[in-house]
Amino acid sequence: MKFLPLVWAGLKRKKLRTALTFLSIFVAFMLFAFLGAIKEALSGGVSMAGLDRLIVRHKVSLIQTLPESYKARIQTIPGVAAVCHQTWFGGIYQDPKNFFPNMPVEPELFLAMFPEFVVSDAEQQAWRSTRTGAIVGRVTADRFKWKIGDRIPLQSPIWGQPAGQAQWEFEIVGIYDGVKKGTDTSQFFFRYDYFEEARRQDKGQIGWCTVRIANPDQAAEIAAKIDAEFANSPYETKTEPEGAFAQGFAQQVGDIGAIVMAVVGAVFFTILLVAGNTMAQSVRERSGELGVLKAMGFPNGLVLVLVLLESCAIAMLGGFAGLGSAWLIIASGNPVPGLLPVFYLPVGSLVAGVLLAVALGIVAGVLPAWQAMRLNISEALRRVG
Amino acid sequence: MSYLNQMFAVTVFNLRSLPERKAAAITAAVGIAGVVGVLVGVLAIAAGFRQALTVSGSPEVAVVLRSGADSEMTSGLDREATRTIADAPGVARGANGPLTSAELFVIITLPKRSTGTDANVPLRGVEQGAFDVRGNIQIVAGRTFATGRNEVIVGAGAARAFAGLDVGRQITVGQNVWDIVGVFTSNGGIAESEIWADTAVLQPAYHRSDSFQSVYVKLVSAAAFQPFKDFLTTHPRLNVKVARQSDFYADQSTAVTRFITTIGVFIASLMALGALFGALNTMYGAVAGRTREIATLRALGFGAGPVVVSVLLESVLLSILGGLLGAAAAWFLFDGYRTSTINWQTFSQVTFAFRVTPELLGRAIGFATLIGFGGGLFPAIRAARLPISSGLRES
Predict the structure, then answer these.
(1) Same domain, A190 and A275
(2) A24 and B277 in contact by Cβ < 8 A?
(3) Which of A258, A331, B189, B323 has the most CB atoms in a 10 Å sphere around its CB?
(4) Is the ipTM of this structure higher than 0.95?
């Protein structure tokens, strides 16, 4: 501890170099943190998926509908605790660029199936009593500055016009938040009974069902049973755990995600290489001073530790500052809610960043420190002056 | 010695002493190479995606959808409408009548070859006129499908990306089994991500009775588009929207291109900043290590200006070297690399290849030069303002 001023003095030796190295490392770690957030945004659905939920969709493709009567039939299968359905509405709010997912659901069943959506009791009550009522997630509400009581018109190219009106109109009765940070709060849910009554085609058809099973270990078994129930019917199903379903979507974007990650990872390491080399260079330049320390009686081991401390100090300062600022920026809001519904820095990335900062300090400093330790005192002293 | 001569002499002197400082120089060059390589890689993704969506978009082909539809999937046209569209003014005619193709667009799920997970693959029902309308469809394996049969041809991109799409195999879609009889290319365009079948056979398979989703029309010339469009949009019995194929495709690619470009630009800016600090550090170090030499030069009478220019030139040269290295690596590694992603606007996969264009490379190297310039300017000025006597005393 008493040698910390020595380490600090070493860093202040060439303030400009230290500052620039600090800044390079700062930027590299900021990049790393944003990378973590983007990766999580592209594939986060997988980690948020319910372990005890299955998705039942039309076997051919998600865009095909299933009959609503399937819900009751799925309920009778042993092992199934609850079933609820959703349908892709594809509603457009003013302009297709303002995209957000919107679906008709059965309020009580839906909220029970998805406890991660937090809706207050008063809002739930309002939803039950307002036929055209809808709840919207915090992210979308903030994006368009909607408040409870606003009337939202949506156009649906898929379902056409509702009976008796020019466009679909909903009243916001609640704004939901997610119970966890990674929960998607960009969606818009309205009542299925209103939807069924007002739509003019494909009545009685729904998009997909979510099934809660009593025992998550039986997922594969129950999925097979559900599919067997509807095999060879006009609407065959494919059932899979919610995690696998989300994974499939992540994989579809996936190639892009993996490529961006790999490519940015490369630059991250390149920037670190440069910073590392500079740190190593600064130690090599001061071998004369290290010779003086050794001549004064500092043990070799201590010299090694001092050099390592110096490189670790700057690496960790830069790294923590970079991770910290990125975390603050990310926490301040989602800059692209239309493209990435969730945007936060996962703890895993933070921890990995911290470990990388320490590793950088050690790796950049170890070779010069080792050389410094083994320095021949008289040779080193000759380099002074 | 004239100014120019001085500049030249000092610069050559600096460059010649570069081998003594090769560790630092190489690190700086590698740093810039990394930045350039990554920038090119990310921009190549956006360029490749856009290319796939627009290369086959011809201004002489028009796409007609139902009014209000934002993509083919949400559109619907009945047979009567498709007949009216085919008889509109401006439609090119072939031996068998107007060159049009009334089409159906659906999605099926097939596992990707790379991950085994399901992905949305476009299945398009076309009429025989489609080959003449598109103009660039080539059958590269097998043969085209026969009308009236459960046969499909698969695009080269789709065949590469999804499992089971080989000539001679079959795909089962619900209750229907289709034989894969051929593979086609379309000049690298979007159609290569699709599977094509006969509309008349696809309709009953999807319970669509007699409705279609879009009509692709070959116009007599690009100029014929406006009268064609006006005729259809003012027709009392039609409710359609008409776009040139090129505009339609460009429109369908905006979301993904915007996503990639936004993220790409953001990342590139951060990278550039990091590289700038790295370059500054390296150049300051380079100048600091040669304080005595520079002071000697100044004492000999070389002006401050040539010193500044020489340091700047050294930095710029190193960056350009690094930039060329990075550009070459990026071109070698990335150009033509095939991948696919989901286009949220059509909810189906688009296969495309990274595209490293000369323009992209030029921009990236220009970028590197800027970084080199920025990284060399302040160290150069510092070198020039060194007090000569104290400089001579430095070790």
Answers:
(1) no
(2) yes
(3) B323
(4) no
